[in-house]
Design a protein that fits this description.
By secondary structure, the chain is an alpha/beta fold. Helix content is 32%, strand content 19%. It has a domain of 289 residues: Rossmann fold, CATH 3.40.50.
Length: 423
């Protein structure tokens, strides 16, 4: 694997220096930093090479000011087993050498699945020992499907055949991606749905992720993975971080341009304004992409406003909802039946109590600090593009009787219970 070869070359260079008298051996920064960023890259799937590229982009972006003396950068990467064991890396800038260093701090057993909450808990604990800080942020890079549970991913559970030519069996093919272009549709470890009819490990439920992250108040959680601007997902994470950056739709396989955006996580301590710049730069990159899909959505969410938003939505729900045709609401994928809908557009169409809806919009404005989208967005589910006319920065599910398991699992979410959807 090219990434491991790169790390080996760095190590070989240091060994060569040992032949010289009194060699200088680079040492990572010591002491407690102001801010540590932890990347959690689950690459035991078809995203492995893209995640390796992401690591290279991080390394290329590190310099004397990023992460600076007050910041630390730690990366957990699980490649495919044939490529090596999972590893914890620390990337830093050595001023004496005027060069970036990438140290392998430790490795983990190959059988430790990155989609196991205990692995996430262990990695966070190890990173905090390696790079202690007053505040932490996390970047998650892998596949994801928003609020959908492992049960939904592994079964599909249809009560009627799928439409538009998709297979209608219970082998998980509802989530099958088509074509050669890859999106990051968190944490699936092993064989992916579109590589076969089974899933070795369907992933980590968001409620499990929230539990694994409990005990640390993160400054920001950044999801370089599909559909994580789902209100059901971020509501589960509301007590875990101050801010969430996520996408309403699929993220292209190349993911976030870390060579362009990483500096904003360390500039002035990754303030709200710099997180908005992070999102703005992400959108600029995908809007101006010279080759490949000009496809992207991104949101910056203030987690302190998720509870007020839930109360405002509950008020709209108590006022009654009109029956809604899902095709009248902005959706964010090309699944056999849409599952991710613009939250604001849905309640605009459905709300009977218009004053409650107007109040909800005001809270939504406070909650979503940035919402960006390209005019059209690509979906590997159906392998095509769709137009984006409404994008508030959060999606929600419209439960359908066509998919009994999906409906049942959605009604169990903390969000559904909080807004009064009890059946």
């Amino acid at each position: 694997m090219k990434l491991l070869q790169y790390v080996a070359i760095v190590a070989a260079g240091l060994m060569a220096m040992a032949c010289e008298p009194k060699p200088y051996i680079p040492q990572p920064p010591q002491g407690t930093a102001e801010h540590t960023v932890i990347m959690y890259l689950a690459g035991n799937n078809n995203l492995e090479s893209y995640l390796e590229d992401n690591i290279r982009d991080v390394i290329s972006s590190v310099d004397v000011s990023t992460p600076s003396d007050n910041g630390r950068m730690v990366i957990y990467f699980r490649p495919r087993p044939a490529s090596g064991d999972p590893m914890l890396l620390q990337v830093y800038y050595d001023k004496k050498l005027a060069a970036v260093q990438c140290d392998t701090i430790r490795t983990y057993p190959a059988e430790m699945s990155s989609s196991n909450p205990e692995t996430l808990r262990k990695v966070v604990a190890d990173a905090k020992v390696v790079a202690p800080a007053k505040e932490y942020s996390m970047i998650f890079g892998s596949h994801a499907t928003g609020w959908f549970t492992e049960e939904c991913m592994s079964r599909g559970s249809l009560t009627r055949p799928m439409s538009i030519g998709f297979k209608s069996n219970n082998d998980g093919s509802f989530w099958r991606q088509y074509g050669d272009e890859i999106t990051r549709t968190f944490g699936m470890d092993g064989k992916m749905i579109y590589e076969g009819a089974t899933i070795d490990d369907a992933g980590m439920n968001i409620s499990e992720m929230a539990s694994a992250l409990s005990g640390t108040k993160f400054r920001s959680l950044i999801f370089d993975a599909c559909f994580m601007a789902s209100v059901e997902a971020v509501y589960d994470l509301r007590n875990t971080a101050k801010y969430v950056i996520a996408s309403s739709a699929e993220i292209m396989g190349r993911g976030m341009p870390y060579d362009l955006v990483l500096r904003y996580l360390f500039a002035s301590g990754g303030t709200e304004g710099n997180l908005m710049k992070y999102c703005s730069e992400y959108m600029r990159y995908y809007r101006e992409l010279a080759s490949g899909r000009k496809s992207g959505t991104i949101s910056l969410i203030d987690c302190s406003q998720l509870e007020p938003l839930a109360e405002a939505v509950a008020m709209v729900e108590r006022g009654g909802l009109n029956e809604v045709d899902q095709y009248d609401v902005q959706s964010f994928e090309l699944l056999p039946e849409h599952q991710f809908f613009d939250l604001d557009h849905f309640y605009d169409v459905a709300a009977k109590d218009r004053s409650a809806y107007a109040a909800m919009q005001n809270v939504l404005t406070d909650c979503v600090l940035y919402a960006g989208s390209t005019p059209t967005v690509f979906s590997a589910f159906g392998y095509g593009v769709f137009e984006v006319e409404r994008s508030c920065g959060l999606t929600t599910n419209i439960p359908s009787t066509s998919y009994a398991l999906f409906r049942s699992e959605w009604l169990k979410t903390a969000w559904a219970r909080r807004i009064g959807r009890i059946e």
